[in-house]
Amino acid sequence: MFFLIYLHPLFKNFIKMKKVLFFVLTVFLFTSCSNKEDENTMYVKGTIQGLKKGTLYLQKQMDTLIVSVDSVFVDGTDTFLLKDIITSPEMYYLTLGDTNKKISFFGEKDTITIHSKLNNFAVKSKIAGSENQDLLEKYYDIKSKFSNQNLDLIKAEFDAKKSGNNDSIVLIQRQLKSLTKRQYLFSVNYAINNADYEVAPYIALTELNNVVLNLLDTINNALTPEVKQSKYGVKLDAFVLKIRENEK
Question: What is the mean pLDDT of the chain?
């Protein structure tokens, strides 16, 4: 009976040690989780000039749906801050309310800064903090030159048909085919030259999904191991495999 009432000092110390160990373990686990979250967190901040009140949504594609991962209500200020946990760089959308106004950008860990205006929401946007975004913008700048040349040739073909100039029609159609081929080759080379960035498989999936298998395979094989394991790297590998199986 005395044993039940009296606790030996060693037993008391053992209980204290267990409490201390439990506390230390809890703090360690909490800190580890917090650090991991910080390492994988993307912060999206910036200003929308002219926006006085409204909701901004941070969105991304999950399977076939565009879903909101964070939102902020802006009232009386044009600044905003949004965040998401990100495992590998991928495309995000900054969407204004329930409108069709969206700013697409390549999200990455750390901080992405977006400055824009309420008028010309997407057109006037300036995005910083993402190397993949910088590379994608350079790609689109060069691609736009191909698009302008294509429009000029289409207009020339229309005029030639209108005037009944068959020789000009044949020449312009050859130029159109040549331009299309050069555009595809440019896209392939751009992806290969930037195979250590996630923008490479993204370009392959969005711009080159109708090219011959060997070109997609070349890009896929050029990707670095890290990029191969990214969201778009995995998708490209699966896409190439599917095409190869369908061609059997």
Answer: 87
pLDDT at residue 14 greater than cutoff 80: no
Which CATH number covers residue 103? 2.60.40.1120
Residue 1 belongs to a domain = no
**DSSP, residue by residue, 170-229:** HHHHHHHHHHHHHHHHHHHHHHHHTTTSTHHHHHHHHHSTTS-HHHHHHHHHHS-HHHHT
Beta-carbon contacts of 201 under 8 Å, excluding residues fewer than 6 positions away, are 191, 219, 220, 223, 227, 230, 232, 233, 235, 236
- What does pTM read for this prediction? 0.81
Question: Please, are residues 198 and 230 in contact by the beta-carbon 8 Å criterion?
Answer: yes
d(CA 231, CA 88): 6
Domain of residue 152 covers: 132-246
Domain boundary, last residue among 129, 160, 182: 129
Percent residues over pLDDT 70 in the chain: 85
**223 conformational bin, left if phi > 0, alpha if psi -120 to 50, beta if neither:** beta
Instruction: Mark whether 183 and 139 lie in a shared domain.
Output: yes
Query: What residue type is 149 in one-letter code?
Result: Q
Tokens standing for residue 156: 């020339």
Residues 206 and 119 in one domain: no
Residues 52 and 114 in one domain: yes
Q: How far is CA 197 from CA 107, 201, 205, 209, in A?
A: 12, 8, 14, 18
Token code pair at residue 221: 């094989």
Tell me the C-alpha distance between 238 and 248, whole Å. 16
